[in-house]
């Protein structure tokens, strides 16, 4: 069981990682509607389908108040022209959408009615790369107030309950394996008030510059992973130790895969909270130059004192990691036993925590 959870998927995943890059939609400038205060040109509205036995999985597309309205998010996406370069809002009404979505159109704002009750869920898991409930290969993407879930191991019903009485309340009866909730491959992607719920590999922050603000990320093993160049601002990270109780309840928050000194990628956490149950390493090195920074985060008492794990790297190899948690607060913030800690000067810290780390040209403020 422990071997299953901690299985070294290093090589396998690198192979997949590169095949994933071929189809990224690149190079489109997104245009805002100058007459619309929300910048978008039009809105596609999605409402939950009627109960399954009535709809028979048939997507209905109808006009409602002159607006096109859909019963699946994928259908709304598919209606948008391939080479779209105008900001378009897909408004997702409250509901649970059981669909596996792939986004390859640029300039999309995916906006839910509210993150608590606007859920996209699926349970794929056989092939990690193909398991994501939501996967994006599009540049210029914004998501707001919506939650992405992979339910293969995640017990959606028990979410948000931290003091669980049985070991399957955070997870479920399935053996824990890699099951991605969202995989983000496009550059210039921003997430506001979004949820990412899963157990292992929840959020595959694979590549590109990304901004996450006021998001909630649940998981137990490598649940924020990949080679993204990302700032996580004021996010809540919830360790589901209970879901991996059978293998000891000790997991890994991040697995960042930066592989060279020139690679600008890294996960930067500003403020926010790490909480939950079990124990968590702040990160383990999925790449030789893995880079993860926490500044000003509140740590519950679940942090493993050594903090960082070298995973498969040994001896001198560990000197290329950039791992630090600084100015943090809470019962888990004692850094005296951390290993591979590379504290940054205030000035260096500034370079990573400033929005310019991911947004030198101002793409974030140009998005809706
Ligand atoms: C979907 O519903 C429409 C309208 O009721 C019907 O014409 C069509 O045949 C249905 N398609 C399928 C695949 O069931
Ligand atoms: C997006 O995916 C669809 C379905 O696979 C494909 O037909 C379309 O050409 C793709 N569009 C772009 C811009 O890659
Ligand atoms: C930070 O996140 C918390 C929820 O964890 C929220 O209550 C608070 O308003 C957020 N702060 C800002 C400045 O958005
Ligand atoms: C780091 O976090 C501390 C505590 O929240 C904060 O005062 C400081 O401004 C942050 N430093 C940078 C460079 O963001
Ligand atoms: C941990 O938090 C306490 C209380 O806020 C603070 O005094 C201390 O400096 C923090 N430790 C570190 C290593 O930041």
Automatic annotation (TrEMBL):
Pathway: Glycan metabolism; pectin degradation; 2-dehydro-3-deoxy-D-gluconate from pectin: step 1/5. GO terms for molecular function: pectinesterase activity. The keyword Hydrolase applies. Keywords: Aspartyl esterase, Hydrolase, Signal. This is pectinesterase. Belongs to the pectinesterase family. Transmembrane segments: none annotated. Its EC number is 3.1.1.11. Coiled coil: none annotated. It comes from the Eukaryota. Residues 64-360 form the Pectinesterase catalytic domain. Residues 1-20 form the signal peptide. GO terms for biological process: cell wall modification; pectin catabolic process. It holds the Pfam family Pectinesterase.
């Amino acid at each position: 069981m422990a071997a299953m959870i901690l299985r070294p998927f290093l090589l396998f995943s690198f192979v997949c990682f590169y095949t994933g890059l071929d189809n990224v939609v690149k190079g489109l400038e997104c245009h805002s509607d100058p007459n619309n205060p929300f910048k978008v040109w039009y809105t596609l509205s999605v409402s939950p389908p009627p109960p399954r036995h009535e709809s028979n999985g048939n997507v209905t597309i109808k006009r409602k108040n002159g607006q096109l309205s859909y019963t699946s998010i994928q259908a709304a996406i598919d209606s948008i022209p391939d080479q779209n370069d105008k900001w378009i809002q897909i408004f997702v009404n409250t509901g649970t959408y059981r669909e596996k979505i792939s986004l390859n159109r640029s300039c999309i704002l995916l906006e839910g009615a509210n993150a608590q009750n606007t859920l996209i869920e699926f349970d794929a898991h056989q092939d990690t790369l193909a398991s994501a409930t939501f996967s994006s290969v599009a540049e210029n993407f914004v998501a707001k107030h919506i939650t992405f879930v992979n339910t293969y191991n995640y017990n959606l019903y028990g979410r948000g309950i931290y003091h669980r009485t049985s070991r399957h309340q955070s997870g479920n009866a399935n053996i824990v394996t890699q099951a991605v909730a969202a995989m983000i491959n496009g550059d210039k992607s921003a997430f506001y008030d979004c949820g990412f719920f899963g157990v292992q590999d929840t959020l595959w922050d694979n590549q590109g510059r990304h901004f996450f603000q006021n998001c909630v990320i649940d998981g137990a093993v490598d649940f924020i992973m990949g080679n993204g160049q990302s700032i996580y601002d004021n996010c809540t990270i919830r360790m589901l130790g209970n879901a991996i109780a059978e293998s000891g309840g000790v997991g890994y928050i991040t697995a960042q895969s930066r592989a060279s000194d020139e690679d600008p990628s890294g996960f930067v956490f500003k403020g926010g909270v790490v909480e939950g149950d079990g124990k968590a390493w702040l990160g383990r090195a999925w790449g030789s130059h893995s880079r993860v920074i926490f500044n000003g985060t509140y740590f519950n008492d679940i942090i493993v004192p050594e903090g960082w794990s070298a995973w498969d790297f040994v001896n001198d190899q560990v000197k290329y990691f950039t791992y630090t948690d600084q100015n943090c607060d809470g019962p888990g913030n004692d850094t005296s036993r951390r290993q591979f800690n590379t504290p940054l000067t205030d000035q260096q810290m500034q370079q990573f925590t400033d929005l310019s780390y991911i947004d030198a040209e101002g793409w974030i403020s140009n998005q809706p």
